[in-house]
Each structure stands twice: as C-alpha cells, then as structure tokens.
Amino acid sequence: MDRFVRYAVLIGYPQLAHSLGLDPERLLAAEGLDAAELIHQDRWTPAPPVARLLERSAAESGQEDFAVRLAAMRRFSALGPLSVVLREEPDLRSALELLIRYQHAYSGILDMRLIEADGLATVQAWLEFGEPVPIRQAVDHTMTALLLIIRTLVRADWEPLAVYFSHPAPADLTVFHQVFGTALRFDHEFTGVSFPARDLDTPTVTADPALRTYTRQLLQSLPAPRVATTADEVATLVEFLLPLGRCSMPHVSRDLGVQPRTLHRRLAAEGQTFSGIVQSTRARLAPRHLADARLTLTQISCLLGFATPSAFSTWFRQSFGTSASDWRARTCTGPAAQEQQGVEVGQGG
C-alpha cells in the first residue's frame, strides 16, 4: 500500500541542509523529490523517499539530530487547515483527540493513540510506511512536531514527564535536551510522550470561544474520519490478544459480549472475516516489531501469535515478498539491528 505525507514535513529543509554543508537539491533529486515542490506544503508525496532523505541527510551531515532540528523549524500552521481548528479547541484533551481523529488529514503514515491510566496520560505514535525504510529520523521529526504542537496550545515551557523513543540514544544529546528536556527514555518499547492526566484539562491559550462556530464549519470541509466498525473493534482486541496466545473467535466474541455466530454475521455484513482481520493485524504490527532491534525474531513470532519462528518466517515472506531479516536490515540502521538477526531467520526466513 502506498503511503503519503504532505510536503509540509520538509519545511525548512533547504535552509537546514545548506547550513550543515549539504547540497539539498542533490539529496532531494537522489530520492526522486523535486525541490520546486517544497513551496506547495499541502501537496502529498510518497512517504518512503522522504524517510530516506532524512536518513541520508543525517548521515551525510554527521548530525543524528537532523530531523529534530528540521521539525523545530516548523510553525503550527504546517498542519494545514486543521491547525486553524485545533487552536480553537477549549483544552488539551479536546485538541489531542481532534489531532488523532483527523490525523489522516495531515499524514498518511501516522497512527497515534491517547491512553489514560493511573493518573498518567500517554500519547503513543507509530509510523507505517508500507515498505522497509529506516525510520529513526522520521520518528524524531514526528515527536518534535508533537511536542511543539502541545507547547503552542498550552504554554511554551510545558514539560512532559517523559519522552520515549524506540531507537537507541544518539551520541550527542544536546539538541534533544534543548527540545525535549532531560526526561528522555531510549530503547523503549514504544515511541511517545507521557504527562500527568490532569494536564489534559489544561485550557488552550490559543482558543477564542467566539471563533469556535466558524472553526466547526471549517472542520466539516476536511475529509471526515472513518466511522468505527465491528471490524475495528475486533482488530483492537486481536492486537491485544495475539501476544497472549488467546486470539480466537470465542475469546474475541466473549470480550465483545456476543456469540461467535453473531460476530461472524456482523463481520460478514462488513465484508470481513475473523481470520482476515487477524492476518491484516499481523501485517500491520510486524513492521513495527521488526523496527525494534531489541526484539529477536523468536520474540516477534510470539508477539504475533505464531506457534513457531519458522511459521512466522514463512508467513512473512508470503505476505511481504521478502524475508523478515531482510526487512529488518533495511529498516534499522544501527549496529544493534545487525546483531539482532535471529538464528531462526537463516533457518526458516
């Protein structure tokens, strides 16, 4: 599946590249990107070349924080029309829920979720490119943009309790500390930001109640979010149950409070099957896990509910047309990625 992002993600790229001694036109052209298109912020372009551009720029400049620097140059308006609506939301909770509900309006690769538990609020972010590409710089860009959005909405000195990155720490943390603060956690199981749940009720400093009627009208002009379906509910439960080894129609039916035959009928009415949802959920989660160099392929096969690593390897090759080890090698760029090529890959991948 093709995944797209708006050219707005590259706002400031030529200036930053030049300042670091790079040739932005050459680097853009090498990835099939047209420098002349950068002025059209709302135009969409395939996401993988953008991810590769950020990685190459970081490597050639010797700046592991390249994407953090780039995202820090963005303005709130880079979100496009949604930024006008977002700034008029009454509090942080409303703004984040809107940002998540309409993420398809500004990104074709972002899967963001807001989780509340035990007095803690966590925004988790995942990037899905649809093909194996190195994602470290894209992840850093996303987290920088998210933090700056929150600070614009509530206050410039807002600090989270922790900022999490699934990749290892860079050698030089100076810029990361300047942007994110010191509560950084690397090699984490997910990428995201956590803060006290009470912060969700913080009023936005940008809101003008008198304008809310007009921004609601503007919101109606944006592509509407997809209405949640039974298949979506099932997919959510499948994602939770796969690592537990309890991902079956009876288990999911019980959790939804319906009989298996009722669930089967509802899914059929949506043109879906339970087994199809299991496979599509695995296909969505597998690249995420492979991008985490801490996980062996044996661990990933368990997380996806496979009985054996060889079963996972066979399924992955059939689903993606390549081995899991090859996908990982093309996604992870650090030395840890090369060390984590599990033995089972060579045997069954």
Automatic annotation (TrEMBL):
<keyword id="KW-0238">DNA-binding</keyword>
<keyword id="KW-0805">Transcription regulation</keyword>
<dbReference type="InterPro" id="IPR009057">
    <property type="entry name" value="Homeodomain-like_sf"/>
</dbReference>
<keyword id="KW-0804">Transcription</keyword>
<dbReference type="GO" id="GO:0003700">
    <property type="term" value="F:DNA-binding transcription factor activity"/>
</dbReference>
<feature type="domain" description="HTH araC/xylS-type">
    <location>
        <begin position="232"/>
        <end position="330"/>
    </location>
</feature>
<dbReference type="InterPro" id="IPR032687">
    <property type="entry name" value="AraC-type_N"/>
</dbReference>
<dbReference type="GO" id="GO:0005829">
    <property type="term" value="C:cytosol"/>
</dbReference>
<dbReference type="Pfam" id="PF12625">
    <property type="entry name" value="Arabinose_bd"/>
</dbReference>
<protein>
    <submittedName>
        <fullName>Transcriptional regulator, AraC family</fullName>
    </submittedName>
</protein>
<dbReference type="InterPro" id="IPR018060">
    <property type="entry name" value="HTH_AraC"/>
</dbReference>
<dbReference type="GO" id="GO:0000976">
    <property type="term" value="F:transcription cis-regulatory region binding"/>
</dbReference>
<dbReference type="Pfam" id="PF12833">
    <property type="entry name" value="HTH_18"/>
</dbReference>
